[in-house]
Amino acid sequence: MNAVTDLKTGSNADLMARRAAALPRGVGQAHAIFAARAENAEIWDVEGRRWIDFCAGIAVLNTGHRHPKIVEAAKAQLDAYTHTCFQVVAYEGYVSLCERLNRAVPGPTPKKSFLMNSGAEAVENAVKVARAYTGRRGVIAFGGGFHGRTMFTMALTGKVDPYKLKFGPFAGDIHHVPYPDALHGISEAESFAAIQRLFKWDIDPATVAAIIVEPVQGEGGYIPASTSFLRGIRELCDAHGIMMIVDEVQCGIARSGKLFAIEHHGIEPDILTTAKGLGGGMVISGIVGKADVMDAAGPGGLGGTYSGNPVAVATAHAVLDVIEEEQLTERAMKLGEHMRSRLGALKARFSCVAEVRGLGAMTAVEFCHGGKPESPAADIATALKNEAAKRGLLLLNCGNYGNVLRIMIPLTISFELLDEGLDIIEASLAAVTAG
Questions:
Q1: Using CA atoms, how far apart are residues 57 and 74, in angstroms rounded to an integer?
Q2: What is the pTM of this model?
Q3: Which residues, by range, are in coiled-coil regions (predicted)?
């Protein structure tokens, strides 16, 4: 930590002041701290304070901060070359990573894949492929879904504030229907009825290219979709020649207890997107789909200058190796069961805990005043996040009403550190609800 001081990086407050002067206010920040170093599930800030990390870079660091094998892979690639542009001079690592992804996505149909940078780019390219294959234009997405912040993916995202405010108009031929949410009274039947109304009132199903769905809504509140719902979407797509795009940017790469959450349901998607955890902190995303679907775009229609960067490809291979070697899918299930057991016990003690839910390690607590869904308690969720930060725990909120605490632990966290963080959540909730 002396090295940080010697560099005169400054205190958190000093850096926040510099940040305010240099960056636009639209770039948010959940916690007013600046990192100096990190290890597995802990971060130390520029003032030397240690933090337990229950955010994992927004579900990116499934393999933890600075996993030795991932660091080693990055260093080795840096010693070889850092960039050629795959479309100019190719490299084997890109091809072998696509081969691994092709094998991993469920279903008997032969697969092909290609790499991009961000989750938003993956989603945009998935829609490009679906449109190229079907020759159609329309896309159906779900309320509460999050698919990115680009102009096109903002249109797909089913939440206005803060993602869409002041940024319209958006791309056309995008339609939203309700996502099932039992707590708030939205049934699967209602979701499917909304799609049928859409077909009757707004868009001919013969002009719909794709339906995009998250198997577990991320920003929407960590709401897992049921097998019956996802199978219903699969059947609907098959009936009308629509591509089923499964967005696994947040729930993929072992976080759900499977490498991909759709594996829990025994369903083969037409196209699947992945990002976040794939790179172990490096910037990479992937689009995987049925081979004939993926071949619909012509040469030069897909790709990008930095897409599939060699260093990111090397770390992605290391991530997949670590997941296999350390059995992180199985560990995600155990971590999630432990969290939901402990947090579920809070429901009897605190009336504001309306629901504890999740899949694999993805775990959420939804707060409502008096436990009543019609009275979302964003104030409690925010106060809890802030109180936990005072006690050294980093958390993030989400949900359509901002009233959901989502826990995004590294899957490599020790159970001792996990319990330390859960203790802080319990103590913080007691503090913010006292009196």
A1: 18
A2: 0.95
A3: none
Query: Which residue type sits at 385?
Result: K
pLDDT above 70 as % of the chain: 98
Question: What range defines the domain where residue 417 resides?
Answer: 2-60+327-433
Q: Give the C-alpha distances (Å, rounded to integers) separating 229 from 213, 272, 296.
A: 10, 17, 28
Predicted confidence band at 435 (pLDDT cuts at 50, 70, 90)?
A: low
Q: Would you say 372 and 352 are in contact if contact means Cβ atoms under 8 Å apart?
A: no
Tell me how many degrees the CA angle 14-44-69 measures, rounded to the nearest 5: 135
What radius of gyration, in Å, describes the C-alpha atoms of the chain?
22
Cα–Cα distance, 1 to 276 (Å, whole number): 29
The arrangement of strands across the sheet holding 50-53 comes to 35-39, 42-45, 50-53, 393-394
* Coil vs helix vs strand at 238: helix
Residue 66 lies in a domain: no
Q: Residue 65 falls within a domain, yes or no?
A: no
- What sign does the dihedral 314-58-186-349 (CA atoms) show? positive
In 143-192 the beta strands, taken as DSSP E runs, fall at 174-177
CA distance 262 to 82: 33
Give SS3 for 36: strand
Looking up residue 43, the CATH number of its domain turns out to be 3.90.1150.10
Domain membership flag for residue 357: yes
Nearest CA-CA partner of 399 in 389, 385, 388, 417: 385
